Amino acid sequence: MNIMISCCEKDSKAYSNLLAFDSNINVESTTSTEKSTLQQFFEKKPDILILDLTNKNLNALYVLSKLSEKSTDSYKKVILIADDSCSNFINQSNFADVLSKPITTQKLIGSLYKNPLPISKTITEQDVKKLLLRLKIDLYSTGIHFLIRAILMAAENHKLLQNLQDIYEKIGKERNISYEKVKWSVRSSVETINKYSNPDTFKTIFKYYDDTRSLTPKYFIKLVLYYFDIDADE
Questions:
Q1: Is the whole-model pTM more than 0.70?
Q2: DSSP output for the chain
């Protein structure tokens, strides 16, 4: 279980020491500022973020507001640590848990284990094909076959979206062709989709679709992943 802790340096060390008693728990990072907390949360994608509301050096409410802007499910990964003066005003159902100080090993580890890790959502080739048919996209071109495979790869490993060449190379090896041919085929298919697609249909199906933005392969793959409620952030 990968854990991230956001609070002052003194408390971070204290909480890390409490968690050290369980070998199944890995404290992946500790942060003490709003910027570093948000950056590390979205980069490392921890299973749980322990966020201390009592830390004077961190505007935890600002962090929570930014998390909610990114995803409504983000709070479910957050264990808040609060003092008695504010814990009574927090809607505990919004979060993985809310703990009041003082924090003990039993209290902290017990909270982590009462919140099972979310099951990773998977999609199948058939799921993607059904979506493309809803978008009135022809499924029978080589580029579309490559695009579907790229979507499935990105769903399994979001980091591949950092550089689509990695995906093109993997598909090329699978098909025993050059990655340039895969790249050209995918780009050509997405350009065709962009040329003949109905913006209104896209807006209806993809809630994050922006018709002022160019439809690139990466953008299209992200739209599809978000459609299936898969976090597409690299």
A1: no
A2: -EEEEES-HHHHHHHHHHHTT-TT-EEEEEE-SHHHHHHHHHHH--SEEEEETT-TTS-HHHHHHHHHHH-TTGGGGEEEEE-HHHHTTS-GGGSSEEEESSP-HHHHHHHHHTSPPPPPP---HHHHHHHHHHTT--S-SHHHHHHHHHHHHHHH-GGGGG-HHHHHHHHHHHHTS-HHHHHHHHHHHHHHHHHH--HHHHHHH-TT--TTS---HHHHHHHHHHHTT-----
